[in-house]
Amino acid sequence: MDYQEEQNQELEVLESIYPDELEVIKRKYPDVHFRILLKLELPIEDLSILKKEHSIEVDFHLPENYPEEAPIIALHPIETPLAGYEESKSKEEEEQAYDDHGNKIVSRLHDNANSIHFDSYIPELQVQIEEHIKDDMLLGMQMCFALLTSIKDHCESWFQQEFEKLEQEHERELQEREKEEQQKFLGTAVTPKSFLEWRAKFRQEFKIDERDFNRRSLMHHGRLTGRQIFEEGLAGEEEEDEPNGEVDQLGNKLKKSL
Protein backbone atom coordinates (compact mmCIF):
# COMPACT_ATOMS: atom_id res chain seq x y z
CA MET A 1 0.00 0.00 0.00
CA ASP A 2 1.26 3.46 -0.91
CA TYR A 3 0.60 5.28 2.38
CA GLN A 4 1.59 8.67 1.02
CA GLU A 5 -0.81 8.39 -1.91
CA GLU A 6 -3.63 7.17 0.34
CA GLN A 7 -3.20 10.12 2.67
CA ASN A 8 -2.97 12.67 -0.15
CA GLN A 9 -6.14 11.33 -1.76
CA GLU A 10 -8.09 11.39 1.49
CA LEU A 11 -6.99 14.91 2.30
CA GLU A 12 -8.15 16.10 -1.14
CA VAL A 13 -11.55 14.46 -0.61
CA LEU A 14 -11.94 16.05 2.81
CA GLU A 15 -11.03 19.47 1.41
CA SER A 16 -13.83 19.14 -1.15
CA ILE A 17 -16.36 18.09 1.53
CA TYR A 18 -15.30 20.70 4.11
CA PRO A 19 -13.97 23.63 2.04
CA ASP A 20 -14.53 26.19 4.82
CA GLU A 21 -14.19 23.98 7.88
CA LEU A 22 -10.87 22.25 7.12
CA GLU A 23 -7.50 23.78 7.93
CA VAL A 24 -4.33 22.03 6.76
CA ILE A 25 -1.53 22.54 9.26
CA LYS A 26 1.01 20.30 7.55
CA ARG A 27 0.45 18.65 4.20
CA LYS A 28 3.87 17.04 3.71
CA TYR A 29 4.11 13.30 4.27
CA PRO A 30 4.88 11.56 6.65
CA ASP A 31 3.56 14.02 9.20
CA VAL A 32 0.21 15.08 7.74
CA HIS A 33 -1.70 17.24 10.19
CA PHE A 34 -5.06 18.97 9.74
CA ARG A 35 -8.11 19.99 11.73
CA ILE A 36 -11.81 20.25 10.90
CA LEU A 37 -14.47 22.30 12.67
CA LEU A 38 -17.71 20.31 12.92
CA LYS A 39 -20.79 22.45 13.49
CA LEU A 40 -23.38 20.50 15.45
CA GLU A 41 -27.06 20.46 14.57
CA LEU A 42 -28.65 20.26 18.00
CA PRO A 43 -31.88 18.23 18.07
CA ILE A 44 -34.25 20.65 19.82
CA GLU A 45 -37.49 22.05 18.47
CA ASP A 46 -36.97 25.74 19.25
CA LEU A 47 -33.46 26.76 18.20
CA SER A 48 -34.24 30.39 19.08
CA ILE A 49 -33.65 29.63 22.78
CA LEU A 50 -29.95 28.93 22.14
CA LYS A 51 -27.46 31.57 23.23
CA LYS A 52 -24.50 29.96 21.49
CA GLU A 53 -23.50 27.67 18.66
CA HIS A 54 -21.76 24.38 19.49
CA SER A 55 -18.93 22.96 17.41
CA ILE A 56 -16.32 20.24 17.83
CA GLU A 57 -12.84 20.85 16.53
CA VAL A 58 -11.35 17.53 15.41
CA ASP A 59 -7.57 17.51 15.15
CA PHE A 60 -6.04 14.73 13.00
CA HIS A 61 -2.43 13.55 12.98
CA LEU A 62 -1.88 10.80 10.41
CA PRO A 63 0.82 8.26 11.33
CA GLU A 64 3.31 7.29 8.65
CA ASN A 65 1.57 3.98 7.92
CA TYR A 66 -1.99 5.32 8.02
CA PRO A 67 -4.56 3.89 7.17
CA GLU A 68 -3.08 0.65 8.48
CA GLU A 69 -2.68 2.49 11.77
CA ALA A 70 -5.41 4.61 13.36
CA PRO A 71 -5.05 8.40 13.22
CA ILE A 72 -4.24 10.34 16.37
CA ILE A 73 -7.33 12.40 17.18
CA ALA A 74 -7.80 15.30 19.59
CA LEU A 75 -11.26 16.72 20.29
CA HIS A 76 -11.96 20.28 21.41
CA PRO A 77 -15.48 21.63 22.08
CA ILE A 78 -16.09 25.22 20.99
CA GLU A 79 -18.95 27.51 21.99
CA THR A 80 -19.62 30.60 19.88
CA PRO A 81 -22.11 33.27 21.10
CA LEU A 82 -24.89 33.83 18.61
CA ALA A 83 -25.20 37.29 17.07
CA GLY A 84 -28.24 39.24 18.23
CA TYR A 85 -28.69 37.23 21.41
CA GLU A 86 -28.34 40.28 23.68
CA GLU A 87 -31.20 41.98 21.85
CA SER A 88 -33.48 38.96 22.19
CA LYS A 89 -32.49 38.63 25.85
CA SER A 90 -33.55 42.22 26.59
CA LYS A 91 -36.87 41.64 24.86
CA GLU A 92 -37.42 38.50 26.88
CA GLU A 93 -36.76 40.36 30.14
CA GLU A 94 -39.27 43.04 29.17
CA GLU A 95 -41.91 40.39 28.53
CA GLN A 96 -41.25 38.52 31.78
CA ALA A 97 -44.57 37.34 33.19
CA TYR A 98 -45.50 36.91 36.86
CA ASP A 99 -48.17 34.84 38.58
CA ASP A 100 -50.80 36.09 41.07
CA HIS A 101 -48.30 35.79 43.94
CA GLY A 102 -45.56 37.86 42.30
CA ASN A 103 -43.44 34.85 41.34
CA LYS A 104 -41.76 34.74 37.94
CA ILE A 105 -43.44 32.32 35.57
CA VAL A 106 -40.63 29.94 34.60
CA SER A 107 -40.62 28.73 31.02
CA ARG A 108 -40.96 25.01 30.48
CA LEU A 109 -37.79 25.19 28.38
CA HIS A 110 -36.13 27.10 31.20
CA ASP A 111 -32.44 27.57 30.38
CA ASN A 112 -31.68 23.87 30.06
CA ALA A 113 -30.34 23.94 26.51
CA ASN A 114 -27.77 26.60 27.41
CA SER A 115 -26.59 24.82 30.55
CA ILE A 116 -25.22 21.87 28.56
CA HIS A 117 -21.49 21.89 27.78
CA PHE A 118 -19.56 19.26 25.84
CA ASP A 119 -16.37 19.46 27.93
CA SER A 120 -17.61 16.76 30.28
CA TYR A 121 -18.49 14.47 27.37
CA ILE A 122 -15.16 14.59 25.49
CA PRO A 123 -13.41 11.79 27.46
CA GLU A 124 -16.35 9.45 26.87
CA LEU A 125 -16.49 10.44 23.20
CA GLN A 126 -12.78 9.70 22.79
CA VAL A 127 -13.36 6.15 24.01
CA GLN A 128 -16.38 5.72 21.73
CA ILE A 129 -14.32 6.73 18.68
CA GLU A 130 -11.57 4.26 19.55
CA GLU A 131 -14.19 1.52 19.92
CA HIS A 132 -15.73 2.55 16.60
CA ILE A 133 -12.41 2.07 14.80
CA LYS A 134 -11.95 -1.35 16.36
CA ASP A 135 -15.50 -2.68 16.14
CA ASP A 136 -16.13 -1.53 12.57
CA MET A 137 -12.70 -2.73 11.42
CA LEU A 138 -11.82 0.57 9.81
CA LEU A 139 -8.09 -0.10 9.80
CA GLY A 140 -6.76 -0.50 6.29
CA MET A 141 -9.17 1.98 4.72
CA GLN A 142 -9.54 5.74 4.62
CA MET A 143 -11.54 6.45 7.77
CA CYS A 144 -11.40 10.16 8.58
CA PHE A 145 -14.77 11.00 7.02
CA ALA A 146 -16.45 8.02 8.75
CA LEU A 147 -14.99 9.15 12.07
CA LEU A 148 -16.15 12.72 11.56
CA THR A 149 -19.68 11.51 10.86
CA SER A 150 -19.59 9.31 13.95
CA ILE A 151 -18.31 12.16 16.14
CA LYS A 152 -21.09 14.46 14.97
CA ASP A 153 -23.80 11.83 15.52
CA HIS A 154 -22.52 10.93 18.99
CA CYS A 155 -22.40 14.57 20.08
CA GLU A 156 -25.89 15.37 18.88
CA SER A 157 -27.35 12.23 20.49
CA TRP A 158 -25.59 13.00 23.78
CA PHE A 159 -26.92 16.56 23.76
CA GLN A 160 -30.48 15.31 23.24
CA GLN A 161 -30.17 12.86 26.14
CA GLU A 162 -28.81 15.53 28.46
CA PHE A 163 -31.50 17.99 27.40
CA GLU A 164 -34.27 15.46 28.08
CA LYS A 165 -32.83 14.69 31.53
CA LEU A 166 -32.78 18.37 32.44
CA GLU A 167 -36.30 18.87 31.11
CA GLN A 168 -37.60 16.00 33.24
CA GLU A 169 -35.88 17.40 36.31
CA HIS A 170 -37.25 20.86 35.59
CA GLU A 171 -40.75 19.40 35.20
CA ARG A 172 -40.46 17.78 38.63
CA GLU A 173 -39.37 21.08 40.14
CA LEU A 174 -42.37 22.85 38.61
CA GLN A 175 -44.74 20.22 40.00
CA GLU A 176 -43.20 20.53 43.46
CA ARG A 177 -43.60 24.29 43.31
CA GLU A 178 -47.25 23.94 42.31
CA LYS A 179 -47.84 21.59 45.25
CA GLU A 180 -46.25 24.09 47.64
CA GLU A 181 -48.48 26.86 46.32
CA GLN A 182 -51.57 24.68 46.75
CA GLN A 183 -50.61 23.82 50.33
CA LYS A 184 -50.86 27.51 51.25
CA PHE A 185 -54.62 27.36 50.69
CA LEU A 186 -55.34 23.95 52.22
CA GLY A 187 -54.48 24.59 55.87
CA THR A 188 -54.52 21.80 58.48
CA ALA A 189 -57.38 19.30 58.52
CA VAL A 190 -59.32 19.21 61.83
CA THR A 191 -60.22 15.80 63.28
CA PRO A 192 -62.24 15.06 66.45
CA LYS A 193 -59.03 14.02 68.19
CA SER A 194 -57.08 17.13 67.19
CA PHE A 195 -60.01 19.36 68.21
CA LEU A 196 -60.24 17.79 71.69
CA GLU A 197 -56.48 18.16 72.15
CA TRP A 198 -56.65 21.79 71.08
CA ARG A 199 -59.70 22.40 73.34
CA ALA A 200 -57.95 20.94 76.39
CA LYS A 201 -54.83 23.03 75.71
CA PHE A 202 -56.95 26.14 75.19
CA ARG A 203 -58.86 25.68 78.48
CA GLN A 204 -55.62 25.04 80.33
CA GLU A 205 -53.86 28.07 78.81
CA PHE A 206 -56.67 30.46 79.78
CA LYS A 207 -57.41 28.66 83.09
CA ILE A 208 -61.08 28.36 82.19
CA ASP A 209 -61.74 25.38 84.46
CA GLU A 210 -60.06 27.09 87.43
CA ARG A 211 -62.00 30.29 86.86
CA ASP A 212 -65.31 28.45 86.60
CA PHE A 213 -64.59 26.55 89.79
CA ASN A 214 -63.79 29.75 91.69
CA ARG A 215 -66.92 31.48 90.47
CA ARG A 216 -69.14 28.57 91.39
CA SER A 217 -67.54 28.45 94.81
CA LEU A 218 -68.34 32.11 95.34
CA MET A 219 -71.93 31.56 94.23
CA HIS A 220 -72.62 28.60 96.50
CA HIS A 221 -70.36 29.15 99.48
CA GLY A 222 -69.49 32.84 99.54
CA ARG A 223 -71.37 35.70 101.11
CA LEU A 224 -72.27 37.58 97.95
CA THR A 225 -75.69 39.19 97.92
CA GLY A 226 -78.11 38.67 95.08
CA ARG A 227 -77.33 42.16 93.83
CA GLN A 228 -73.56 41.42 93.92
CA ILE A 229 -74.11 38.22 92.05
CA PHE A 230 -76.11 40.13 89.45
CA GLU A 231 -73.50 42.90 89.19
CA GLU A 232 -70.60 40.44 88.98
CA GLY A 233 -72.40 38.63 86.22
CA LEU A 234 -72.22 35.33 88.07
CA ALA A 235 -75.90 34.59 88.00
CA GLY A 236 -76.67 31.94 85.44
CA GLU A 237 -72.97 31.37 84.53
CA GLU A 238 -73.16 27.80 85.60
CA GLU A 239 -75.69 27.25 82.86
CA GLU A 240 -74.27 29.73 80.36
CA ASP A 241 -70.51 29.19 80.64
CA GLU A 242 -70.51 25.85 78.88
CA PRO A 243 -72.93 26.50 76.02
CA ASN A 244 -72.22 30.19 75.42
CA GLY A 245 -69.12 31.58 77.12
CA GLU A 246 -66.79 28.81 76.09
CA VAL A 247 -68.19 28.63 72.59
CA ASP A 248 -67.62 32.37 72.14
CA GLN A 249 -64.04 32.09 73.37
CA LEU A 250 -63.38 29.08 71.16
CA GLY A 251 -64.86 30.94 68.22
CA ASN A 252 -62.65 33.97 68.84
CA LYS A 253 -59.59 31.75 69.23
CA LEU A 254 -60.35 29.94 65.98
CA LYS A 255 -60.73 33.26 64.14
CA LYS A 256 -57.34 34.41 65.40
CA SER A 257 -55.68 31.15 64.40
CA LEU A 258 -57.08 31.21 60.82
TrEMBL record:
Domain RWD per the UniProt entry, residue ranges: 9-158
Gene3D superfamilies: Ubiquitin Conjugating Enzyme (3.10.110.10)
Compositional bias per record (Acidic residues), positions renumbered to this chain: 234-245
Top-level taxon: Eukaryota
InterPro entries named among the record's database cross-references: GIR2-like, RWD_dom, UBQ-conjugating_enzyme/RWD
Listed SMART domains: RWD
Name of the protein in question: RWD domain-containing protein
Chain segments carrying region Disordered: 229-258
A Pfam family annotated for this UniProt entry: RWD
Organism: Zygosaccharomyces rouxii
